Every structure is written in C-alpha cells, then in structure tokens.
Amino acid sequence: MHTALSPEFANSARGRRAGEILRKCVHCGFCNAACPTYQLLGDELDGPRGRIYQMKQFFEGAAAGDAMRLHLDRCLLCRSCETACPSGVQYGELLEIGRAELEEKFPRRAPARAWRVLLGRVFSSRKFFAALMRVARACKWALPKKTARMIPAAQSPTSPAPARAPHERKMLALAGCVQPALSAGANPAAARVLDQLGITLFEEPAAGCCGAVQLHTSDLARGKAAARALMDRWLPHLEHIEAVVMTASGCGLTIKEYPLLFADEPEYAEKARRIADKTLDLCEVVARELPRDWTPRAAPKRVAFHAPCTLQHGQRISGVIEELLRRAGHEVCEVRGAHLCCGSAGTYSLLQPEIAARLRRDKLAALGAGRPQVICTANVGCQNHLAAGADIPVVHWIELL
Ligand code: SF4
Ligand code: SF4
Fold first, then answer.
1. Is 296-400 CATH 3.40.50.1860?
2. How confident is the model at residue 229 (pLDDT cuts 50, 70, 90)?
C-alpha cells in the first residue's frame, strides 16, 4: 500500500517502522475474516484492514480524534489477523506504535488516563493484588452478582512442592503478578511435572511483573521500566539455568518480544536478547522432555482446551498442548472457532466489558459443545475470564498432567 509519511513521522524511528509495515499491506481484507471484533460488530473500521487504514491516515498527517481511538481501543491485540495475513503484515507491532503515538499526540481525558494507570499499577503489583483479592473474596457476598463472578475462589495449589533434593538441571519460572492470586496451582504443578522429568523449577522471588499489563494499557514508559527491572533480577541466574519457563503465555510472548521493545536501547538490547533466547513456553519444555514411554498419572477426563491468542498467534505454538493432554490419557474435544479470542486480552475485559462478555459467551458455547468435564488453558487471564462465565472448572493445562 502506497504510504507517504508526514514529515514528523518520516523523521522518527517509530514512524519509519510504521511506514515499513504499512507498505506491506495490500488491502486484500483476508484478515477481516479472522478478526473477532469485525465478526461481532460488522464494521470495517473495527476490523484489521480498517484499523490499518485509519493508522495510515494518521501517519500521513490526518488529525487524530476520538473516533479513531474508539476503533483502536476495541482491538483485542489478539493477532489472529497476523496469522491470516498472506503478506506478513506485523499488525501487532503497528498497533502498538499507533496507540503509543496516539497517546502522545492526542492524550486521553484525565479520568480515562487515570483508570488505565490505576489498572496497570494494581495488576502489576503481586502483593497489592493479592491483598485486594483477599478483601474482594471476603466482601464477595455484598457485591453485585456480575462483579462477584469475576472474583475466583482462593485456590490452594493442587501439587505439593517437590520433596527431593534439587536436580542438576535447573529452569527459572516467572512468579508473576496476578497469577499467584488467580491461578495458584499453575507454577507448583509445573514444578511437579518438571521434577518428574529431572528438572528443578525455581522462582526469583524479588522479580516482579514482566511489563505486559502496562504495555497493554499503552503505558510504554512504565511497561519498559518493569521489563528492565525484571531483566536485572534475572540476569545473574542466566548462567546456571537451561531455560526461562513461562506458565502464562501472555507474559511469555511479552518476554520473547523484549528484543523488539528494547531495539533502540543499547544497554538493554543485549540483555533482552539473552533473556528472550532462553525463554520457552512450558508446553515447549514438556513436549521436548517427556519420554516416549511416559506413564500418565492423572485420571482421564473429557477436556476442552482454549488456545490463548498469545500462544497460537503471538508465539505461533499450536496443537502442542492438545497432544500432551492426549498423551496424558485425556479425551480432547474439538473446539469450533479455536482461533478466536475469548475476550480476556490483558485488561481488555475491564476496559471493553461488553465486547469481552459477548466474546466469552461465544467461546464458552464453542468450548462446551463437546460436553467436557473441564476446560483448560495456558494463560492466567483467559483462565480467570472464562471461569467467570463457566459452569465447569477452568484450570491451567499443566494441572491435568
Ligand atoms: S493486513 Fe494482510 S490480510 Fe489484512 S488487508 Fe493487509 S495484506 Fe491483506
Ligand atoms: S488483533 Fe485481533 S481484534 Fe485486533 S484487528 Fe487483529 S484480529 Fe482484530
């Protein structure tokens, strides 16, 4: 697509990168068919092709306004359109540049800005979020039914910590910010399975959020600050570990993309590359390490797996977890429209609650079609969002191994 950047954007690195991506788009519209918001709202401006066109106009010098913001805000950043695009348009990167530039040139009104900053702060602080969840659980009875359903019951880890002495092979896990309070079983279950495979999984307790929450709310400065702090905590461990294992695919994608985020910061670009090179999703590790003659221990169940967008479209990992679940003896149900987002999308379910609720309703109908006993997924956000509307348990897939 021919693109003539305005002088302001032609003279900035971010503007030139946006121009490069825009030029790859041939405006064919194949991506629209894969887009959840286009399917739901039926408006060209709420599909990837329309959003790309709005960003092109903005980068060419057209005035930005609330209308453009509305359509960019409604994007889930699920990147289903990237998977569908035959021209390799890096839509996710373009949207992140577009949103960041829009925030700078056309700032939101103060209350909306404050709400986003608050969300970023609350969700990225493990201690504060855990305390908030304790209070919310205690007051659940007094909350409106809709809000109360968003607060999951306290989960005690289903897997005890491995009792044996540490193995020689070691891997590092992200303790996470919201995961300990919302999906307490995930990391202990990962440690149990890896222990059976001769690997010790440990956490660096002082390491905080990966920055994904702030980046999702277009708060680039705070997102990068969180990422730098995490890298500095992790770097001393890198020599002694085989891999950084991610049990939440959203955080995994963020960390795998640190090199892109820090491309223009010489001091952190190398650190980002070293950490990203060692980062693997948990399913990549288990699939690689599981011996052929492995004997499953879990009782077989009928399971529906929800593939998070950050896993299938962001990290381009598909079918691996379903295969592991089958190897564990479970019956895995077919899920129609498995490429579509469930509506969680980081903080999206709080910022765009109506669209998120409609996407969840459709996703739960697709997941429930095969009459599963349990739904599982690979990202804490999807797990909690789906659980708020599901009438069967929603767990992390590793808890079923
Ligand atoms: S993003 Fe890709 S699929 Fe969508 S209109 Fe552009 S070239 Fe076509
Ligand atoms: S990222 Fe998802 S919601 Fe956004 S345009 Fe692409 S397919 Fe649509």
1. yes
2. very high
